[in-house]
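Forum > Structural Biology > Help requests

Title: Can anyone predict the 3D structure of Dynamin-like GTPase OPA1, mitochondrial?

Hi all, first post here. I have the sequence for Dynamin-like GTPase OPA1, mitochondrial but no way to get a structure on my laptop. I'd be grateful if someone could post the structure tokens.
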Amino acid sequence: MLRAAKQITRHRGTNERITYLCSKIVTSTSNSYYSTLNQKKYKGGGKSNGWSKYFLAPRGPKGWTIPPSRGYGMIVARVLRGALKLRYILLGGAIGGGVTLNKKYEDWKDGLPDLKWLEEVMPKGEKWTQFSKALAEFGSSVKDVIEIAKGEIKAKTTVTALSLSNDESRRKYALQSQVENLQTEVINVQIKYQRELEKMEKENRELRQQFLILKQNKKTGTKKIKKSLIDMYSEVLDELTGYDSSYSMADHLPRVVVVGDQSSGKTSVLESIAKARIFPRGSGEMMTRAPVKVTLAEGPYHVAQFRDSDREYDLNKESDLSELRREVEFRMRASVRGGKTVSNEVISMTVKGPGLQRMVLVDLPGIISTMTVDMAADTKDSIHQMTKHYMSNPNAIILCIQDGSVDAERSNVTDLVMQCDPLGRRTIFVLTKVDLAEELADPDRIRKILSGKLFNMKALGYYAVVTGRGRKDDSIEAIRQYEEDFFKNSKLFHRRGVIMPHQVTSRNLSMAVSDRFWKMVRETIEQQADAFKATRFNLETEWKNNFPRLRESGRDELFEKAKGEILDEVVNLSQICAKKWEEALSEKLWDKLSNYVFENVYLPAAQSGSQNSVNTMVDIKLRQWAEQSLPAKSVESGWETLQTQFLMLMEKARKSPDHDDIFDNLKLAVIDEAIRRHSWEDKAIDMLRVIQLNTLEDRFVHDKTEWDHAVKFLETSVKDKLDQTEHTLSEMMGPGQLTRITHWKSLTEDQSKRRHVKHELDKILRTDEKHLPTLSYDELTTVRKNLQREGVEVDTDYIRQTWFPTYRRHFLKQALHRAHDCRKAYYLYTQQGTECEISCSDVVLFWRIQQVIKVTCNALRQQVINREARRLDKEIKEVLDEFSEDEEKKAQLLTGKRVLLAEELIKVRHIQEKLEEFINCLNQEK
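Reply #1:
Sure, ran it for you. Structure tokens for Dynamin-like GTPase OPA1, mitochondrial below:
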């Protein structure tokens, strides 16, 4: 009613349109009707009646005749138009009643509980109907089968009784025949039952798959998907293996160890249990080169995944299966190093799928009796030791695989199993390739093997399986169908055999192994939890005795703490004031530039001669310097200053009372790596070059204060250089008279010669205080002859070596005198310029250099604060991120008893928690 009202309301206000449409419909209908009517022949001469023609042809207002079809349509249209006037009355009632009904329905709906979760969880109606119908059919079919079997058994029992009473001589034959027939019927019934059961399981898996998909899609932030019990158990095993690689003997938790001779079919048995061809294959070649731990679990999809990888392989796709086999083969070959043939490294994978039995299996390399030339010399012994290593664990379930197509006496694995489990309390014997054994072997020997009477080896159970027809491309479904058909039709296991039905097929084997596996898990898991509880108590006691005031922190936590401290120091770089930055930059920059300024600019220009030549040479040298090496040296100084300030902050943090020296090695390694990677921005050099060239163009000191600073800068720089020269001379000349007396020292022969040479050179400088930087030939000859008269033989090179520091000291002393004179000559300099009586070009040069250093330090400070400190922060973070993922690097940089003890305590605590969580889930399932 509401829907009709809404449709009427939607067309409200379109009365004329509806009338027109109705008239068109009726007109077209009437036209069709009369065209048909005119074609018919009536009984009265085959013509239409005259009165009907007159009636159907009304006249218009002007007397012309309206066509019959048109008139009929107009009449009907008028009737409908009048009738439609009633719709407003109906519309009002419908809307009013609908609104009231809708309100009542909403109030009733709000009172009901929220059942949306049931719609999301339950399957669709068709699926549920199919499931219920299939369940009912299955129940009736099973009931019919049981009733038929009962009736047949009862009838045959009656016949047997009658036959025995009639003919005693045929009693034995009849009993044997009926036993065989009953076995056949039981097997047929079981096969039929298994098929029905598999059908029901398939439908159940589809429903369960939909349920799990819906459940996984309904993820919320507060609810986690519960891990399966076998996944939790596999994680416990991985944790134990990571805790201690030698943790594999008496205290080890159960796992199924698959052992057998090479090419006995053990890998095929494992694949049959996993329901997928997951392992690589080779004809006659050893393929299993390392232990493969396979965790089987039930899941909605048939997938496989390696422990150290996030990729899932879809086992229903042949492409994924091929990639999985290649990856397994690659990992096996990668684990073999140093010329070895087999490896002890475990390859861990998980296989999930509908209907899989939950257990953990380890596939080991096959035992060999003869080695080939391409194998390592110790391959045979290595495989034996590895197999014993896994089987010697008293909690390991040994799945002993025997090839049924070869003589039992040729087997190597049975003796090895008897050594490790002589009582057979944890051994399950599996006879493979029985389809070949039926044709090649003696049936009596096969029956003896499966009844445990051929070998001295004892076992919990004996099983016969068929793992294929030897074809690499056969699927698991084809193999299982072949196995089922074989056991159904086999004469060895059907006609003459006494083997129980539960001893055959891979399905029964997997269920038996899984039952035994979980039984042993329940028996041993609590012992493991108690052992780790005791270990945890001992470690916690040791920690309290050695580090009572510290909390146990592992390497990851310590690394995060060190990371925070390093990043805090980077932040502190931005808190250094601008004045301190410029002072540090100025000091570092002048330390790098001073030698070049003196040796390449100042001394060559000042010792050149006239004032004009000095200024010209200074301009040329400064411009070359600013265009070539000065910007790069400035950037280098800025980078070294940034490093120095950062290291000073780190050193200051080390002296604080809260400092923890356990982080020192890590911090230094991170900083060194970040500094090694860091490079100053390239555009900074171009920017500095422009600024420095513009600054050096200014050759006039603007005020007295700058003049005084320049004079002071000149004096300080010259004194530093003079001290270096004095130190060089003292090393050449040896100690003075007072030092020799007080310290009981004497001059060497070379030092004595240097003193005589210096004495002659001082005479030259006293004679000519404005002497040029070099000695003439005549002066060299005079000095050498004077020394010869005193008994000192030297060559000209020896004299020049002594002249260089001697003249430099003389020149620097004169420069200090000129600087002292220029201190009060600023106003004279401003008036006379370059023609000033006192030569102050030294002051102007150092003023220009001082200005360049000032603007360079200012630019470098801005670059450090605005760009370089942030880039260094980014690089330090990158290094920290890389180190955080490198466990070896963390173990190398964070060492000591405190770290090792904390790491062990954290691992033991984590394993104990995993064990307790698993035990709780196990008890709940139990």
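Residues 541 and 548 are 10 Å apart (CA to CA). The chain is about 65% helix and 5% strand.
Shout if anything looks off.
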